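Hello Y.,

Per our agreement to keep a running log of every chain we model this quarter, I'm adding this entry. I've kept the format consistent with earlier entries: sequence first, then predicted structure.
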Amino acid sequence: MAPTPEWIKTFNEKKALLACPNNLNDYFEEREVAGKSIDHLELGSVSIPTGEILVRDPLVFIQRDAEPYTYKVPVGEFPVTAAVVVPDDEDGARYAAVKVQFTAHDAVRFEEALIGIEDLESFEEGEFFGFNVDAGLGCILDKQTLLLFCDFQDKFIAENPGKNLYDDYFAALFAANYNANPTHQREGGDWINWQIPGTNYNIPFFQSGFGDGTYPVYFGFDAADQICSLIIQFIDIELAYGEEFE
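Predicted structure for the entry above:
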């Protein structure tokens, strides 16, 4: 669904409020943020065949009519990286952010990704819209891979009455990935790079930082104001772990 002219007008008026308050580059370029050690975990690639990208909870919010973000991104296979708060005596590994890098250029600003139906009239500084998580996981899809995922989901349910898509299919894949790549994963597994059966398309799944909730997604724009990355922010590291929070 294309945004209405009225929505676009309000968007342009409030665009400055959609900027990320953090420099998300630090999450992927530094080894320490707000006193917490940060490591970087490569999650393989994501397939973007149409350029219409979206972020969803893969177990709860996968529907055919899910809308992609208003901005289109480059088409192809792109690397995905998680910025991980390194485990310590108080907590396990937390995935603070996940990035898709589309080009070789660095982002100089970050703007929240929207689908074009958000209520911007009452939007205020410090707020965000984000995407909902209800199963502790996020995933990055293209509009085409979303439809293929839905086809797979429908087929699985039809052929496996009474079975659960996670318990009876994905859980084994997460466990196998933990065995192959245990770094910054719990024993049951915290991420997979799933190739949709019967296709060459990949969808990365990953843990959502602090679990269920609503999390913002940002497009990174380079110095020429072109989209160069997409970043999901699961944890505002400075807010969650900084001195002011304490």
